[in-house]
Specification:
Blueprint lengths: L1 H5 L2 E2 L2 E3 L2 E3 L4 E6 L4 E7 L3 H19 L3 H17 L1 H12 L3 H22 L7 E4 L4 E9 L2 E5 L5 H14 L3 E5 L6 H13 L6 E3 L4 H10 L5 E5 L2 H11 L5 E5 L4 E5 L5 H13 L9 E7 H15 L20 H16 L3 E4 L21 E4 L6 H4 L6 E7 L2 H8 L4 E2 L1 E5 L3 H10 L4 E4 L14 E2 L2 E2 L4 H7 L1 E9 L1
Parallel strand pairs: 1-5, 8-9, 8-11, 9-10, 11-12, 13-14, 13-19, 14-17, 16-17, 19-20
Antiparallel strand pairs: 2-3, 4-5, 6-7, 7-23, 12-22, 15-16, 18-21
Helix pairs in contact: 2-8, 3-5, 3-7, 4-5, 5-6, 10-11
The structure holds nicotinamide-adenine-dinucleotide.
Function: Catalyzes the NAD-dependent oxidation of 2-aminomuconic semialdehyde of the kynurenine metabolic pathway in L-tryptophan degradation.
Pfam family, one: Aldedh
Family: Belongs to the aldehyde dehydrogenase family.
Amino acid sequence: TMAHSKALLVLENFIAGKFVPCSSYIDSYNPSTGDVYCRVPDSGKEEVEAAVKAAKAAFPIWSSKSPLERSQILNKLADLIEHDLEAFAQAESKDQGKTITFARTIDIPRAVYNFRFFASSILHHTTECTEMPTVGCMHYTSRTPVGVAGLISPWNLPLYLLTWKIAPAIACGNTVVAKPSEMTSVTAWMMCKLLEKAGVPHGVVNVVFGTGAKAGEALVCHPDVPLISFTGSTLTAQRITEKSAPHCKRLSLELGGKNPAIVFDDADLSQCIPTTLRSSFANQGEICLCTSRIFVQRGIYSEFLKRFVAEAKKWKVGNPSDPTVDVGALISKEHLEKVRSYVKKAQAEGARVLCGEGVDSLVLPNGNQKGYFMLPTVITEVKDESCCMQEEIFGPVTCVVAFDTEEEVIERANSVKYGLAATVWSSNVGRVHRVAQRLQSGLVWTNCWLLRDLNLPFGGMKASGIGREGAKDSYEFFTEVKTITIKH
Ligand code: NAD
């Protein structure tokens, strides 16, 4: 209807400090109602070309600013986002389907912190120097920004993950062309509105909206973009690697996971159960770090399962803007169907679904009947070879299986193609160290989950990625290093 189309939010690309309309647009859905509520530019080569040109033009001035000057601008931007925290949180929840509580307490505060963190860390890096007195020389390293950084981010933690790339890239003196997910572009567009006020010079941050196939690939293939930082699926990363190979681009790839939780007999279940529920179902299970294989030692298996399922049933699914809701909507109808299909496959293989999808009934408020909702689902009696135990589901579905020995569980935990994050639950400190050492996983959390110090490396092994991000790691990725030798 007319009234309906009038209410649509229409986004524009942000190039050289200006909002510019695009010739065609993509519909963007509100996942909690199923309505189209926003139109996102369907950018392609032309728009990417303009953005790269603007970023190249801004590079000489931005890269020659001192770290302190850049730091002050990043801090200002952090303050401005924080000032509008509630508006950003509302927008993120509406656009992505996540609960308003999650957006308010995790997504937007972290986006603010990403800028503050890199505003600070950029001031503290030092380079190396070594001497060779016997031949009368010294060597030192010098680091310079690389140029125009291409940044591509996914839909699950939209502003959180995009700023985790923009902040270090510009702190180091690069200029950027960013492409958020076409499904969650609104908060990136809102951030663009604050850049000028923060003092970010025109062309330093350019945002081009659109699909991966058109806008994303144009960025990956652009000869003047020497580095790509990508967070998303392993399949897309393979494509990006192929497409960028002719240009020998520098790549940072943060990909999917099939993360195990290992619960030993001596675990403190009063801590383990609520945390493992969160690690399985937080943000609808749409976090790359979410647990989806829970290995429980035989002695406590039935007790764990009973308590875990009873608690999972208490998670309230519904309107994301209701602050009492724990589980919002999944990102899209297609994704919901995909997640559901895993549960069906598990059942067909003879696994048991203890709660959630197909077992309990989902009651939704009136306005949300067409939203993409699903109950937290717990699967058991599932084989390690099952696709539910091997593939990333990326929804509120977790599998619980029993194990007997430490040796056995390490082998089973490692027997997937991914290697992003693991949790280990035990009160035996020696065991915790032993197991952590042997897990093929970029991150191991023992007796906790999602506690992060941004100073330390973040990233995955095996099919979960290449490279690490963090204070020092992002600095190394976003700068070029040169070794200079001086003979005296
Ligand atoms: P995706 O790979 O489909 O898309 C990610 C981004 O890449 C989007 O912006 C998309 O438009 C773009 N893209 C798609 N095809 C492209 C192409 N050919 N060239 C260039 N860009 C292209 O992933 P998604 O579905 O948006 O996100 C979910 C995935 O992201 C999951 O696998 C999840 O585990 C992963 N993820 C990983 C991390 C991490 O830090 N390791 C964090 C969050 C999400």
